[in-house]
Amino acid sequence: MSIVTTPEVMAPDATELEARVQELLSRMTLGEKIGQLSQVNGPWAHEGIPEDFAEAIRRGWIGSVLNAVDVERVNEMQRIAVEESRLGIPLLIGRDVIHGFRTIFPIPLGQAASWNPELVREGARIAAREAASTGINWTFAPMVDIGRDPRWGRVAECLGEDPLLASRLGAAMVEGFQGDDLRADDAIVACAKHFAGYGASESGKDYAATFIPERELREVHLPPFKAAVDAGCQTMMASFSDLNGIPATANRYLMTTILRDEWGFDGFVVSDWDSVHQLTVHGLTGSDHESAYEAAMAGVDMEMASRCYIEHLEWLVQDGRVPIERVDEMVSNVLRVKLRSGAFESPYRDPALFPVPGNEEHRASAYESAVQSGVLLQNDASSGRPTLPLDLDALDRIAVIGPLADEPGEQLGTWIFDGDASVSTTPLTSLQEVCAGRCEIEVARGLETTRDRSHDGFPQAVEAAERADVALLFVGEDAILSGEAHCRADISLPGAQAALIEAVAATGTPVVLVVQAGRPLAMESVAGFAQAILYMWHPGCMGGPAIVDPLTGARNPSGKLPITLPRVTGQIPIYYAHRRSGRPPTPESFIYIDDIPPHAEQLSVGNTSFHLDVWYRPLFSFGHGMSYTDFRYEGLRLERDSVEIGEPVRVFCDLVNEGDRRGVEVAQLYIHDQVASVTRPVRELKDFQRVELEPGERRTLEFVLPPEAFAFVGRDQRTRIEPGRISLWVGRDSDATLRVELELTGETRA
Ligand code: GLC
Q1: What is the set of domains in the chain, with CATH numbers?
Q2: How far is the CA of 273 from the centre of ligand 1 (A)?
Q3: Which end of the chain is more exposed for a tag (fewer CB within 10 A), N or C?
Q4: Per-residue pLDDT tens for 7-25?
Q5: 272 is annotated as an active-site residue
């Protein structure tokens, strides 16, 4: 349901739009132009709108405000801009609506584990509808940085390690936020961020430098941004990070050559918070005056929070260093988006016309998103029956242990400005509801927080486990341990959680780990103590039922890892689409540190690529995720074993649900270009399908790979497709074994 304010007015076509832009521009003073390029943070400590702030709006010196969520004040700001300023240009009201507004969905990394673009789109649609009711018309999302270093706190906000998955889900978020009609009152402008390469921050420290070779930039980091642009995303946010010596905020190659000249992007670019000023901190400039010059000439249209444009752009134009034509381009980009957003026709919002934020329908969607985000990592069946799902009628007592069983705020995760922890449903609450009259629950936290190092609570937890038929351990990370600037050098379980798990496991009571975290955690030291592990990320406001329903079998898990789970921190970076190297490890060539004879001088192994102190495979691979039913892949075949470059490739595979219950499988298709003019990753995800099958049902899956699925960046940094042999796999994760070979024929296409 869209609340489209002007259904009778057709959206202006490109010509009309440009005419309106130019007409407005022609009437603007330089001060008003620079005003459109300035986003300021509202002084919300005050009541109402301070007069100096109102006057700045009235004079056209402010084009956008961020962090204003009081609809009365927002409407008043818009009224001043539209009815009291000379040109009546409305404001863009920006906010970080990252994974929900009042109804909090799983963190984006969790949503990525659903591999479900439709569900991700619906979540963004609901977030837009709730945010728009307060007058917000612009969100600083989706974050489509590729995350391959889980030490980085912002991996929580990203859509995983793979460019294809992040592209499809990021595009879905753009479509959800912007809706079918960007002019609708419940649509908000999307912003793909942080352009570009932010996820490669050195050593996983936020804001650290990035060093990204051109091929890596174009094959890994840029595709999700291009997908966002192709999905109609109207704004981009420049990254804080230094890219190969030139911070993104001043990087013309990114902001103009790639974004404008190659991709044809015609929205606008906003800096990140204070990032224009921070060019002086980077040491790229010696003053805000030079920072304004560098950012403007690189292609950053609007400045967030710092005042370099407001204080220096006019003089740069007067001095002729920044041509007025450049300023006009910047202003045109902003006006174009404002015109497309419908803000001129409908600047005000009436919450009464919107669904109530946090309503049951929205919470139901957040529940579905959280359930589908859950990844069943392991589920021991050595006793003859899998540990999960629990049969509540066969259990007398469940021990509920750990610091995250009943934390309505922690389960929301990072970036939840407008969430409401008081309406979160926790796992303990849901367990108490579902176990009532069926089995006992004994609660023993064991630890106050996930960072708690004290063992004082262990005896109570151990006793509870000893009395129980199963111990559910709710562990992971408090929300504060991930997110912006919240990076960790050691991504094992914080505090004394590992010791608590070991102490509980020593009772012999079966252990189920339920992990809530903002990143992959290195769990090699604890996985062996657990009969089952359900990885729930930070699941949002409906984390309770979304965890309990899979635990009890009311729902069948279907999540798949969107990011590799390392064994130990020292394996980082570890991701599936790596290069083979000239000496790939093998089980035969690996030697474990404890197996090295005393005083050995030379290891009699094949000298291959591994660490002596850890097995060279991840703990859990990209794409991994179990179900309560069993899926079998068979009959993988190509429509044609040899295909001319430029032709689509059709791949077929049969999928069978061999189990006794309905289930969803995410079938994944990977390729490997065996020999090419540059080395290629050992595997690359090129397509996936979510398939729901009834018990016993068989379905033939068809994948159609377009020609560009085989393209890569060649030695000349240009995209090319070369003839040669391609391996293709279809299976349940990036370790799929069912394989066929394709012969790509014809001439290289550059
Ligand atoms: C922050 C973040 C960015 C966010 C912006 C506004 O520093 O880097 O993602 O959108 O500032 O809050």
Answers
A1: 16-280+287-306+325-353 (3.20.20.300), 374-552 (3.40.50.1700), 575-617 (no CATH), 631-745 (2.60.40.10)
A2: 6
A3: N
A4: 456 677 889 999 999 999 9
A5: yes
